[in-house]
Structure formats: structure tokens, C-alpha cells
Amino acid sequence: MPVVTISVKLLNQLLKKEYPMKDLTESMEQLGCDVEDTEEITLYRCPACDALNDRSAREEAPKTCAFCGTEQQEGFPKFASDAAVRIDLLADRPDLFNAAGLSRALRGYLGLETGMPEFSCDPGEIEVQVDPSVLDIRPYIVCAVAEMPPLDHAALRELLKLQENLHWGIGRDRKLASIGIYDLDTLSPPIIFKSAAPEGFKFFPLTMPDREMTPAQILKEHPKGVGYAHLLEHLPRYPLLIDSKGQTLSMPPIINSDETKCRTGTTRLFIDVTGLSEQAVTDALNILVCDLIELGGKVQTVKINYPDRSIERPDLTPGLIDVGYESARRWLGIDLSRDEFLQSIRKMRMNVEPADSGGDGENHKVRYPVYRSDIRHEVDIFEDIVIGYGLEKVPHLLVPTMTVGLERPEEKIGSLVREVMTGLGFTEIMTLNLNSEENLFTRLSMEPGADHVIVDNPKTINQEVLRHHLNAGIMETLEKNRKKPVPQEIFEIGTVTLLNPETETGVNEYRHLAFGIIGPEAGYAEGRAVLDSVLRELGWEAEYRPVEHPTFIEGRCAEVSGGSGGEVWARLGEIHPRVLCNFNLANPVVYCELRLAKVF
After folding, report:
1. Average pLDDT of the segment spanning 351-361
2. Does 581 share its domain with 468?
3. Domain check: are 437 and 515 in the same one?
4. pTM
């Protein structure tokens, strides 16, 4: 999990009170932050983008910028020293990713301020025109304008660190959402969001002010382009932001132009968030602008003109949720008084009032700030209530019934197979249960059948189907590692789900083993040897028979059943060249999937 370094000096400035390091770290732990350590750090200035990179005082000066990717032979020049707290990023609280958001939460927890902070934005004049050509590539964009006190090196560092942390915490490493921040004084609105061919235009990418490059060149030669090429290189056209004079702002989600970058002294910011998920881009923008307001900024809206509608963002309207007093007591198991219930909510920077006029009923209306993207349900408020009440005050009680836990059958067999696979030199991976129909079927040359679960209201296009095989996860992992040395040997032990209307739940769940081998010499015989080893350790007899399957090469695929001709429990074969091309793989792949157990 990524680690973020928070300046203690800046944190105390925002708290407007000096707190000992011990008090700060204890309060962070109570808020749910995993504090790794505290230390003295040295800040080094990147000569290309002016950003400050931090290192432990014991470490050498960096030679690669964490923000722009610039590399040089000599270490970066030292800028300053600071005391810092290092915390693991809390994935469900992206609003705590920097000093501004963390200080806001601490002011409530420490009793300096209570209730919901008020955020507002003024109507702005800038508009963004969304071209239809980009809708199939990166369909969502939201923007804002911020007037800031002149950025010094420390403020610029906080801005860039928050940008990268949100890329990880909300954007899934820029895939679902990516952020661009520009010096507004270098732009000529209106802004146009469009797409262009990989060789169709040139601009000066960040840190390369003297070298004009095409997008295709950037993906091959610029450090950030190489690092994030997998997000664009399979597309026929790339997203592009330009202003009314044709000046390039950025090529999302890869790189900004050098001409429009923020520098020390910048006071007017233009911010865009583009992505594949409307919720992700909205959450990222809301958190970013709220933190800019905490740092003294004033925010203005931007009008986004889609082909079929227009919206104005950011929208900082607070959320509203119903919370029950007795429900909180019952869920938490704490004898909360009504005053403690109300004070705990306000301490966590939310407003609360009774839903009825009497003031002593069960239901309450809780208003929460727009940066709290983690609140989806009443139980999310319950979690905040127990934090505001004080975790140290919750009594530690033994459960009334003592039992001894045992491994479930599928876990026991999974542990055995895991030992076998790691002993054979394989590396274990874990992929998501939800995926897209394109990855589960189209890219594997399969037609969607009737045995897979479809999500009615998926959050993103990558979460629309519950997997019923593990092949897509193995192939996607090999695709992401295609530039690494081969051979590569990976495996996964995971659950697959198949529709079965005759069961109570309407599905059957199975625990499967899947493994893949990629390399110039990878073939059926190598996969057969691995599968035979696993079956021998399990004590299972096997009977192989040739089959045809669209994912595999004809004549190089087999299904395996029990020696008595029982249910098929495995499929093994060499991946078809057509499928290899779909996943941008240049070497042969042998793949096997083995059913280990039924999950009850």
C-alpha cells in the first residue's frame, strides 16, 4: 500500500496550534490512519518541474522525480529539512491523503471545530466543449478553476502529492480517473476535450520544453508515457485537451504539456479530471477543490458542454442520509446517550438534527460534506460515531460463546495447492471477481453464455460481470507484465460463480486453480507436467481427452475428468494466437484451470 509523508510543520500551521508529535500520531491512529513512523526528512527540488521530492535524512538524494519522471545522473539539489509523519494511505478515506484534509479531520477529533465545514464555489465563465469523438475513449470530464495564494515550493509539493495520491486512491492508478492541473494564465478558453490519432499532433510534454513529440513517441520515450502506456496503446485514438488557440493542455491520462504547467508563483489554476467512471472523476474533483479551499483558495465552477447536455462542476452540495439513534446503539453495542450520539457525529465534521420536531425520536438527518466519498450507507456513519465517541472508551468484552475455528474444506485444499504451486516456482496473483464482458468473453474469442452473473447496475464497465472462470485475470496480468523478462509463471486460487436456478441462491460457487506460463518454449507438455504434479499431490486420478475450444489452438487443448468419467474438473491448452494478439502478447502461453472444490 502506498505511503504518504505529511509535514508536521504544515499540519500544525493548518491546525493553528502546536501539538506534540505523540498527540498527533495517536489522534491519526484513532481516525483510522496507519502511522508507520515519524522521522526527519530532506526535501530535494526537481530541476525540471520544480517539485519537492522527500527522502529520509538517512537516504541519498533522489535521481528520479516522483512527479514528472525526470532522471539525471546526479542527485537532486537539497532544498530544506522537515519533521514528518509517514502513514499508509487509507483507501476508503481519500480525503485524508494530504495535510489539508487530515488537518480538517483532526480539528474535529481534537475538539477545535465541530460540525460540517462549509464549502462554496462561485459561478465561473470558462466552458469546456466535449467532442463526440472522445466519448468512446474517455467519456467523462469535470473541471474547476481555483484562485490561490501564490504557490511556493511547499504548496506546489502538496498539490502534486495530492494529485498522485488521488490517482491511486480513486483513479485506480489513472485508469478510472486522472487529474490535470494547469496555470490558467497560460490558457485561452474555451477548452476543447477531443480525440486525435496517435501520430496526428505534437506538443511539448512536461519536463521536455525543447522537444516536440507525438503521442506515440511519448508512450515509447517519455518516462510517464512508458509507465502508463498500457492505458492508451490499444486505442485507435487518444484523448486530448486543447485551448481555443490549439495549444495542448494534456494527453489524459498520461502527461501534461510543459507550457501549461504550474510553477512557484502561480495563482490561478485550471483543473480537469477525466476518466472512465463518472463517480470517480466527480469524487476526485470534489476532494481536490475542498483541499484547495482549506489551503486558502477560492473556487469557481466550469460549464461542461457534452453533445447531449451541459453540466456545471464542481457541485459542493452536502450529502444527506438517515441515521437511527437506537440502530447505532444496537450495531455498535455501546450504551450511547443521545448527547454522545449527536456530539460524536459533529466531532467527525458532520451536521445532525432530529428528523421529527420533538427532537427525541429514533430517526436523524445527517448532512455530510461532499469530500466524504466513502459514505454510502447508515453503517458508514456508525463507524464515524464510534471513532468520535472514542475507541479507547469501548469496553473489551469476551464473546459469550467460545469456539475453535477450523479451515473450511475449500481453504484447506487451497492451502495445499498453493504450497505445490509455489514449490514449482510459480508466483501467486489475486485478481478482482468483477470484470467486463469484453475481457471475460470477447478478448478470449468466447461468446457470452447463459451461466454467468450480470450486475444490474455496475459502477463501471469493468465491473459488469461476475467471473465464471479465471482465464481473464491470468491473461490481463500477463498483458500488464509483457515488457518484463520471460518466461513468467503465475497462478491464482479464486472463486468462480455459475448460475444455477435450482439452488437456493441461484448460483453455484467453486474454488478454482488457474495457472499460466508464457515464454518462447511454453507449450502443452509443460502445462501437462505442472497439472500432473498438482493432481498427484491431491491424490486425484485423471483422464485426459482432446476437445475444441475457441480460446485454445485446435489440437492443443484437453479437458480432464475423474478416472471414472465423472464431472470435468480441468481444462488445459495452448492459447490461440488470435487471443494472444487481443492481449498484446508476443510469446506462446499455456493455460490451465482446475476445479478444486465446491464452496457451500
Report:
1. 78
2. yes
3. yes
4. 0.71
Q: Are strands 127-130 and 298-305 parallel, antiparallel or unpaired?
A: parallel
Q: What is the pLDDT of residue 564?
A: 43
pLDDT of residue 585: 94
pLDDT of residue 4: 81
Task: Kindly state whether residue 116 falls inside one of the protein's structural domains.
Answer: no
Residue 291 pLDDT > 80, yes or no? yes
How far, in Å, CA of 400 to CA of 242, rounded?
65
The answer, yes or no, to whether residue 57 has pLDDT greater than 90, is no
State the residue range of the domain holding 146: 121-313
- Amino acid in the structure at residue 229: A
Looking at the DSSP bridge assignments, the partners of residue 349 are none
pLDDT (mean) for 116-142: 96
Say if residue 358's pLDDT is above 80: no
Q: CA angle at residue 380 from 375 to 386, to 5 degrees?
A: 135
Task: Mark whether 84 and 195 lie in a shared domain.
Answer: no
Distance (Å, rounded) from C-alpha 492 to C-alpha 513?
6
Residues 458 and 413 in one domain: yes
Residue 286: CATH number of its domain: 3.50.40.10
Q: Say yes or no: 414 and 539 in one domain.
A: yes
Q: What is residue 568's predicted lDDT score, i.e. its pLDDT?
A: 59
**194 φ/ψ angles, rounded to the nearest 5 degrees:** -140, -170
Residues contacting residue 252 through CB under 8 Å, at least 6 positions apart: 138, 178, 180, 239, 241, 272, 274
First-to-last C-alpha distance (Å) of the chain: 32
Whole-angstrom distance, CA of residue 160 vs CA of residue 97: 12
Q: Which three cell numbers stand for residue 347?
A: 466531532
Question: Is 483 domain-assigned?
Answer: yes
Among candidates 59, 95, 63, which has minimal Cα distance to 76?
63
| Residue 591 and residue 527 in contact, taking contact as beta carbons nearer than 8 Å | yes
Residue 226, SS3 per DSSP: helix
Residue 420 CA to residue 530 CA, distance in Å, equals 10
Sort strands 34-45 and 52-56 into parallel, antiparallel or unpaired: antiparallel
Residue 540 has pLDDT above 60, yes or no: yes
CATH number, domain of 93, equals 3.30.56.10
121-122/298-305 β-pairing: parallel
Contacts of 504 (CB under 8 A, 6+ apart): none
C-alpha 177/C-alpha 475 separation (Å) is 23
Per-residue pLDDT of 455-483, as tens digits, reads 887 777 778 889 999 999 999 999 999 98
Task: Give me the half-sphere count of Cα atoms (radius 13 Å) on the Cβ side of residue 208.
Answer: 21
* Residue 104 amino acid letter: R
CA 210 vs CA 125, 193, 257, 258, 321: distances in Å: 33, 25, 11, 9, 53
State whether 464 and 590 are in the same domain.
yes
Which of 399, 397, 384, 400 lies closest to 336 in space, CA to CA? 384
Of residues 46 and 578, more confidence is placed in 578
pLDDT in tens, 72-110: 888 888 888 888 888 887 778 899 888 999 999 999 999
Quick one: cell of 332?
455498535
Contact 552, 516 (CB under 8 A): no
Domain count for the chain, please give it.
Answer: 4
The answer to whether the beta carbons of residues 494 and 482 sit under 8 Å apart is: no
Grid coordinates given for 339: 448527547
Average pLDDT over residues 178-187: 96
- Residue 577, pLDDT > 60, answer yes
